[in-house]
Every structure is written in C-alpha cells, then in structure tokens.
Amino acid sequence: MALEYKLLLHNLSCFLSDEGTDEVYLTYRGEKIWPLNEKFTPMKAGSTANVELEISILKGATASVELWESDTFSKDDNLGKFLLEADKIGGPYTTDMIKADKGKSKYGLTWEVGS
C-alpha cells in the first residue's frame, strides 16, 4: 500500500499583483479549496493571507494548486499554478507561482509536507 502524506498549505504571499488588488482563490483538481467561506480573498503587493489547509497526497506525487483571479463580468483568470512535491516530510518551503499567461503578477505559497 502506498504511503500517504499531507501537504500543509500555510500562507499565500503577493509580491506583485496583476491589477491594483487581485481577488484570488485557490483550486486543486478543479475544485475551489480556498478561501472556504468567501468567493475570493483580496490581495495586493506586499500582502500575505493565511491559507491553513491540508491536502492528502501519495508519497512521491506532485500536487498542482492553481491560483485564480475572480472577475465579476467575465470569465475568471487563471494566474498560474504552484507545483508541490511530496517526496519527503519537511519544510516549510516557499514555492513561486508558475505563470499561466503573460500577466505581471508574482505570488508565493508557503507549505510543508507532514505525515
């Protein structure tokens, strides 16, 4: 039987927003996972938001967590993704977002691997 780890997502940091204030949320496997009780969380350059959630994953697997920007009158924008590898227990780590397009936004996700 494969060993299961937990990805512990701690904080999302905005280093440079795509707009003045980005209205962001995270998805995993096509499902919104954060924020839990709101449609989005507003973020601007220099801000950090507490995420504090767990994702179960098999040891050695890589999770792709996507960052989206909510739009009122048009389709939401995929800003990019974070690739989180569960190869060993440890952390915390900070992973930079891999951009989905030519937008200017820069985000980082702080996380760790637990058992």
Strand segment count: 10
Give the SSE order as H and E letters: EEEEEEEEEE
Helix content: under 10%
CATH class value: Mainly Beta
Features:
115 residues; mainly beta; Immunoglobulin-like; 6-stranded antiparallel beta sheet; 4-stranded antiparallel beta sheet; 10 strands
What do you see in this structure?
By secondary structure, the chain is mostly beta strands. The protein has one domain (4-114): C2 domain (Immunoglobulin-like, Sandwich), CATH 2.60.40.150. The protein contains no helices and ten strands. The chain has strands spanning 4-16, 22-28, 31-34, 41-43, 48-58, 62-69, 77-85, 90-96, 98-99, 106-114. Strands 2, 3, 4, 6, 7 and 9 form a six-stranded antiparallel β-sheet that branches. Strands 5-1-10-8 form a four-stranded antiparallel β-sheet, with no helix packed on it. The mean pLDDT is 95.
Topology:
Elements: E1 4-16, E2 22-28, E3 31-34, E4 41-43, E5 48-58, E6 62-69, E7 77-85, E8 90-96, E9 98-99, E10 106-114
Antiparallel strand pairs: 1-5, 1-10, 2-3, 2-4, 2-6, 6-7, 7-9, 8-10
Give a short summary of the structure.
It is built from no helices and ten strands. The protein is mainly β.
